[in-house]
Structure formats: C-alpha cells, structure tokens
Amino acid sequence: MKLHLLLGSNSEAAPLMVLVLVLTGMVKQGQFTACHSTFLSALVQLIPCRAAVTPFSRIPPSDTCCNAIKALGQPCLCVLVNGPPITGVDRNMARQLPQKCSANFEPCDAMK
C-alpha cells in the first residue's frame, strides 16, 4: 500500500488508519525499537522535510527539517524509512537526513 499523505490525498484514509493501528500495536509490543510516536504522527512531524526527500531533489534539508529530525529521534525515523512505501519519498534520501542534519544517529539499517 502506498501512503499518499505527503502529497495531500486522503483517498485511502481507512487503510491508512488500519496501518497506523497495526504499527502502534507493534511499537507497544516492542517489535520496533522504542519509538513513542505513531507512524502517522511521525510522518506528520517530517512534513518540513518533504522537499529534501522528493526523488531526484537537490534541495538540502532546511533548518526546520533538521530540527524535526532531531526532535523525532532515530527510532521513529527508522520506523518510517523501514516501513511501508510512502509516495513521493526517496527512502535513500530519507536515510541520509540525519547525516545531512548533523544528527548523531546510528544508521537505520543497523536497526533491522
């Protein structure tokens, strides 16, 4: 399932809500490293980073984006980049955000 949230489409609201509930349950059961946000709230926090993670974008992350990355934290960022596909987001670019923002996070691949 592709998430259209970053592009502003709510046409798949019901499947998205099911996904959020499943991921929230997985977080509570400890199947992911401690992320205290739901998938949806983590995704919303990273809206300022949209321009920096659009495929083929050369736009660097803004200060607002970097502040959001640091506030969100590595566990929640990894839940997003290792989770279901998000329309309009290049996962490799999203994985590079901590480095580009000088956030001292372990790589998300180490979290698998």
Descriptive notes:
The chain is mainly alpha-helical. It has a domain at 40-110: Plant lipid-transfer and hydrophobic proteins (Hydrophobic Seed Protein, Orthogonal Bundle), CATH 1.10.110. The protein contains seven helices and no strands. The two termini are 21 Å apart. Residues 1-9 and 16-32 have low confidence and may be disordered. InterPro entries: Bifun_inhib/LTP/seed_sf, Bifunc_inhib/LTP/seed_store, DIR1-like. GO terms for molecular function: fatty acid binding.
Structural class: mainly alpha
What's the end-to-end separation, in Å? 21 Å
CATH topology term of the domain at 40-110: Hydrophobic Seed Protein
The total beta strand count reads 0
How helix-rich are the residues, as a percent range?
40-55%
Query: Which CATH class of the domain at 40-110 applies here?
Result: Mainly Alpha
Low-confidence stretches: 1-9, 16-32
SSE pattern? HHHHHHH
CATH superfamily of the domain at 40-110: Plant lipid-transfer and hydrophobic proteins
Shape: globular
Mean pLDDT: 77
Query: How many helices?
Result: 7
CATH architecture of the domain at 40-110: Orthogonal Bundle
Strand content: under 5%
Q: Main beta sheet, described?
A: none
Rg to the nearest angstrom? 13 Å
Organism: Hibiscus syriacus
GO biological process, one term: systemic acquired resistance
Signal peptide: 1-29
Protein name: Clustered mitochondria protein-like isoform X2
